[in-house]
Amino acid sequence: MKEKAVSRLALYGALVAFGLALLISPFASPWPDGLERVAEDKGFIERGDVQYFRAPIPDYLLPGVGNEKVATALAGGLGTAGMLGVGYGLGLIFKRKKSKRAAW
Amino acid sequence: MHIPDGFLDAKTLAATAVASAGVLAYALRRTEKELEERRFPLMGVVSAFVFAAQMLNFPVAGGTSGHLLGGVLTAVLLGPWAGSLALATVLIIQCLIFQDGGLLALGANIFNMAVLGTIGGYYVYRGLGRLFKNNPLAQAAGAAWFSVVVAAAACSLELAISGTSPLPIVLPAMIGVHALIGIGEASITAAVLSIVWKTRPDLLERGFAYSSISGKA
User: Fold this and answer.
1) Which residues of B touch A39 (CB under 8 A)?
2) In this model, does residue B182 exceed pLDDT 80?
3) Searching chain B, which residue's CA lies closest to the CA of residue A57?
4) Calpha distance B125→B138 (Å, rounded)
5) Between 20 and 30 A from A10 (CA), which of A40, A84, B125, B156?
6) Mean pLDDT, chain B, as a whole number?
7) Which residue in chain B is spatially nearest to A11 when comparing CA positions?
8) CA distance readout (Å), B205 to B115, B125, B134
């Protein structure tokens, strides 16, 4: 019963996360965030131009997708799915370790 | 507040990386020992939610936006140690896949947001119990606001120590804008937790995410 309630909460949470990532993120404010704005105002934003590697989905825009809003939505969807998988995997690892301990 | 590469100097990058690695290693051990069974399924969902929510920039003042950090939200639902791991995972994925936050700066970003903002935020949440008469929503809102401001202050210190911007200039600017962003953080944190409270109030019980058997937090 309690397990069910947590799983239901988890399911709703996942659905909400996907909804936000797919439907709302393309309409997020394009303005620079707090740190970027301060960096612009105080003249050190250019220092951030250095890149040591190229990430696959830079700036949350899936490459090869013409429409920016769609590119953002897809990037968000992929990221959310990825986080679900990684987070769930982490939880599983801890669960296994815990049962191993309990076993002895 | 994701610091890109190029903002911080080598010593600051190294120091924050070492500190973060140490804390995360400790968090791994604490989580493994203490995280309650019922919270394991939440790790994925909370991480996913924080990731998605961090994409939703909202305007705060002329030409500036903010977004959820999610440290206190995560810590209240998962506990400070699992919470810091979840936040760190989000930051790592954001950096490696989406180029959000620098690679060498990962240590600093993890320190500001997953350590100070999450673990620190959790203890502020607990500490506000007296002031807010054990109302977890009010405590979480207060702690959430504070966590954003503290993270911004730490970021300012790192920038100043790196010689990127003098402290008397960068600190007031960062605190000023993040005091505003913190209001958004507090509102979103309280709103999400109020929904959780309706369905699983025991997840917020007494502000403790750990079983009362261990008595530790």
Assistant:
1) 7
2) yes
3) B98
4) 9
5) B125
6) 91
7) B45
8) 23, 13, 10
Closest residue in A to B180 (Cα) is: A34
Residue with tokens 């076993």: A103
Residue B209: band (very low, low, confident or very high) from pLDDT cuts 50, 70, 90: very low
Q: How far apart are the first and last CA of chain B?
A: 27
| Residue (of B84, B77, B57) closest to B177 by Cα position | B57
B178: chain A residues, CB-CB within 8 Å:
34
Give the type of residue at B58.
F
β-bridge partners, B59:
B65
What are the chain A neighbours of B6 within 8 Å (beta carbons)?
47-50
Instruction: Determine phi and psi for A89, rounding to 5 degrees.
Output: -60, -45
Q: Is B197 on the interface with A (CB under 8 A)?
A: no
Contact in structure between A58 and B25 (CB atoms under 8 Å): no
State the average pLDDT over residues B31-52: 87
- Please give the Cα distance from B101 to B109 (Å, whole number): 7
Of B59 and A7, the one with more pLDDT: B59
The tokens describing A75, both together, are 């990037």
Residue with tokens 């989580």: B31
**Interface touch B165/A51, C-beta < 8 Å:** no
Over residues B77-92, the pLDDT tens digits come to: 999 999 999 999 999 9
